[in-house]
Amino acid sequence: MWEVRGSKMIATAFHFGAIPTLIPVNNLARVSKEGRRGPSTTPPSSAGPVFRSGSRISRAPATAPIARAAAEVQTTEDALMKVSTAADVVREFYDGINRRDLSAVEPLISEGCVYEDLVFPRPFVGRKAILDFFKKFTESFSADLQFVIDDMSNEDSSAVGVTWHLEWRGRPFPFSKGCSFYSLQVREGKRQIVKVHSN
């Protein structure tokens, strides 16, 4: 048996002596499955186009699962785009401290965050411990003492480096320059600070 493939017909030649028989593509099912008995009565399916290769018939997979998967990916990308960037979260963190608004700072810090400041012998572990630390700080100093960001990295979605200094009523406070490194993760749809190393 041999096949000649064209744009509209696949001709299969069965040699009965020296005379080949040409069979249109629509009747190949009869040849491959029923021999010479007659046309196939199997109803067509809408699952996808049929591809015939020799005596095998395969059907292309339906496109619905692919479309659903693409839609899910797009939904995930849209959701991530609505999450604040790492740099934005860190800016909000400093802004909340400067305004003495710890209720605005609280959701920016993860429950198990570790805040390590080299001024202190041990890190502050957990959101509550960190908020307690900043509460003492804000209660001990006037709101005239402000953190001022000098420079900040913004290329990374999970890590931010910041250089800063303190100002008292708009004037640089002596010996107050520092740098801090923040690690962030997206948790429950929000990007939060999970670790801080400051000196």
Automatic annotation (TrEMBL):
It comes from the Eukaryota. InterPro entries: NTF2-like_dom_sf, SnoaL-like. Residues 90-190 form the SnoaL-like domain. Residues 33-54 are annotated as: Disordered. This is SnoaL-like polyketide cyclase. It comes from Musa troglodytarum (fe'i banana).
